[in-house]
Amino acid sequence: MKVSELLTSGRPTLSFEFFPPRTAEQETQLYAALDGLKIFRPDFVSVTYGAMGTSRQKSFFWAKEIKQKYQLEPVGHLTCIAATRSDIASQLEELSSFGVANILALRGDPPAADTAFVSPANGFRYAKDLISFIKKTTPALCVGCAGFPEGHPKAGSLAQDTDYLKQKIDAGAEYVMTQLFFDNSFYFAFLERCRQAGIKAPIIPGLMPITSYNQITKLTAVCGATLPTPLLAQLEKHQADPKSIMEIGEEQAVRQCQELTANKVPGLHFFVMNRAAPITDILTALK
Fold first, then answer.
1. What is the C-alpha to C-alpha distance for residues 244 and 201, in angstroms, rounded to an integer?
2. What is this structure's pTM?
């Protein structure tokens, strides 16, 4: 079923995001996470795709596995920064052959160390171009796009960032999946900016439970997400105690989810990091 259809059910959707494993140990961990979380009957499950397409085969394998073995609705990620139009057409055909009906269309990031990198001339410069191509060539697919509650790190301003999101919606994106955030006020302000700009598409908040002090401080530095001062102080105080960090992270996520659902968000999307336990604890607490 298409995500756009699921979002009209009258209840908030529940979705999980996994990344393709690189080792046999990680593969075992992902199977365990899928086995552990399928009991929550997620409406859809997304599988990430390396920015330069480096994990494409693994991403597609797991999209197929999720669809056929677990009978869950997969959302395939596609990035376009290093792809030609022919590449994308072939990838869309392959995903469709697996029964994938949903795509999250992303630009992707060029290699950080390669300052001379140039996208293929017959490719796509921006996500909006990829979205337009998908909707013109495979209109039956449901296409989502990314949104940034605190603004994209490379955007000149929040207004500029909102304007670009509007262009992605106008190109055919049917819903927005946000980057992670830890202060709901950023999401609500983002939602208000979008509505004022005429963006009517559902905007699903993306949530990442904190499970590691080092991991979350590095990640937020890269993506530009803000850790609220009281939360950061708690994390710093207990950074040497993994169990306390997990508890702090789960409590933070539960509070966020309670406020978001009370404000009638269209769904909750969890960046699982291929670990079932934190998500299980959070969803059990939320009942």
1. 38
2. 0.95
